[in-house]
Amino acid sequence: MTNKRAILRKSLPDMISDDIRERILNGELSEGDAIRQEALAEEYHVSRMPVREALKRLDAEGLVQLTNNKGATVITHSLDEIGEIFDLRRLIEVDLFRRAIPKMTADHFALSDKLVNEMDASYAANEVSKWGDLNAEYHSSLYAAADCKFTDELLKKISIRADRYVRMHLTVMHQLELVKDEHHQLLILAQQQEVHQACELLTKHILRAKNELLALIAENRSDK
After folding, report:
1. Which CATH number does the domain 12-74 belong to among 3.40.50.300, 1.10.3520.10, 3.40.190.10, 1.10.10.10?
2. How many angstroms separate the Cα of 136 from the Cα of each of 131, 160, 169?
3. Could you give the C-alpha distances from 148 to 20, 96, 100, 176, in angstroms and in order?
4. Is 177 exposed, middle or buried (0-12, 13-18, 19+ CB in 10 A)?
5. pTM here?
């Protein structure tokens, strides 16, 4: 008997929002850039309606600022807001990691190991477009055993906003080797049930990215 496989069908707004999101996250669309609905509709060969719906979704995600009668722009976060994004990551992720480690099973470890090796391969291949998603997936795999549904949903929303800054940190700051080492070490400490050390390393991992990024962005903005 042939197994039936579900086919994921995406609507036009889904596909358009996915593409615009990636263009924002990979830097093709920079903070403050105007987004013209008419130009996008022509580019995607669609009417303005699915474009507007896609922009509404990105507005809800905090990537686009959509203003009535004024169009849309790629959102510009202040330095304080960027810092807040990473502070929220630290508070939520460290708490989840602390809860998860005592409950992690061989299956949890196997998934995390698979993802961290996929990340290594994407670094080696310079597949920048995959870095944000893989980073979020890997970190989420470390916390899955905590089984905190609402906290996980909140973290996903924060991770979308953090994605472009995570990519920026990895590409501009040339921190791949250090990040790779810390990602592997987080998994090793979790396997060894070293809760305190694992949470300390995760805190350091996130705060270093925050501080380096804030310095980089402040310098770039002062040059404009």
Report:
1. 1.10.10.10
2. 9, 9, 14
3. 30, 8, 9, 30
4. exposed
5. 0.82
pLDDT digit string (tens) for 25-47?
A: 888 888 889 999 899 999 999 99
Dihedral class, residue 133 (left if φ above 0, else alpha if ψ from -120 to 50, else beta): alpha
Q: With the C-alpha atoms ordered 106, 112, 118, 120, is the resulting torsion angle positive or negative? A: negative
Q: Cα–Cα distance between 59 and 163 in angstroms, integer?
A: 15
Q: What is the pLDDT of residues 46-58, one digit of tens each?
A: 999 999 999 999 9
DSSP E strand stretches across the chain? 34-35, 64-67, 71-74
Q: Which residues contact 199 (CB under 8 A, 6 or more apart)?
A: 94, 97, 98
Return the residue matching tokens 């070490």.
185
- The separation between the first and the last C-alpha atoms of the chain, rounded to the nearest angstrom, is 64
| Average model confidence (pLDDT) across the chain | 89
Fold of 79-222: Four Helix Bundle (Hemerythrin (Met), subunit A) (1.20.120)
Q: Which residues pair with 202 in a beta bridge?
A: none
- Give the position of tokens 């849309």: 72
Task: Specify burial of residue 38 (Cβ count, 10 A radius: 0-12, 13-18, 19+).
Answer: exposed
CA-closest candidate to residue 175, choices 213, 140, 221: 213
